[in-house]
Amino acid sequence: MFNRKAKSTIDSLIGSSTSIEGDVHFKGGLRIDGNVKGNVVAEPGETSVLVISESAKVEGDVRVAHLVVNGEISGNVYSAELLELQPKARITGDVNYKALEMHSGALVSGKLTHEQNVAEPVLKLAMSQSA
Hints:
Layout: E1 12-14, E2 19-21, E3 24-26, E4 28-32, E5 35-37, E6 40-42, E7 48-52, E8 57-59, E9 62-69, E10 72-74, E11 77-85, E12 90-92, E13 95-102, E14 107-109, E15 112-114, H1 120-130
Parallel strand pairs: 1-4, 2-5, 3-6, 4-7, 5-8, 6-9, 7-9, 8-10, 9-11, 10-12, 11-13, 12-14, 13-15
Family: Belongs to the bactofilin family.
InterPro entries: BacA/B
Protein name: Cytoskeletal protein CcmA (Bactofilin family)
């Protein structure tokens, strides 16, 4: 009846008084209000959403399908689907995205790269199975 994969929800929260040292791997939805020193990586090939709130700081690379940033990231960003940069977003590092929505006031100190061939590995796999 309800297709949960159609829309990702927030499953986990890293609270504002929480600091994590080390990589964070997750599935589904994650909201960060605190600090993370390490990479934040969503399960590849899965629907995922990451929200970095205004009070949050991530020091490391971020890899996710849908990313909403209103806090600070010091590291490279890889968004396989949609990247939303809210007015208080601050990214220091290179940004790779498929679709970008950037609000006035957001700041990126690094290179912006539009990735057009995100689905290329899937096409190669499909071709190798049919041969």
